[in-house]
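Example record

One chain of 124 residues, shown exactly as stored in the release files.
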Amino acid sequence: MSDASTDRVPDGNAQTSPAAQGEMRRVLGHSLDRIRNAVEVLACRMLEQKLEKCPEIDKSRESIEDMYCLALNRVPSLYYHSTTSFAMRLEEQGPPSDILEALDKAIDYAILKVGQNPPSRYRD
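Predicted structure tokens for this chain:
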């Protein structure tokens, strides 16, 4: 398991990453940590539910990460400010149905694609 404050570089040495230092989500010194993409959380939940029904699919960390990325790249994002009334409404009513449908299809696609070509197949 890797330390959240370091990344490995090709020669194997650890270096402090900008993300670990909190620099990746800052503009002019202002943190953007209250900005959220609702689709990311939904994708986690939906992917987990679907994978529980697919015992034959590789569930290694690499496979799950690949499925997650592939699915998210196929759907529109839904960013919101975590302290707004939109955030509360989103929590109460859920995301728009068109985004849910697109995410459902994208996750099915990702499970199929990664299931056919799991990353573990390409390890040394």
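Notes: The chain has two domains: 1-28, 34-122.
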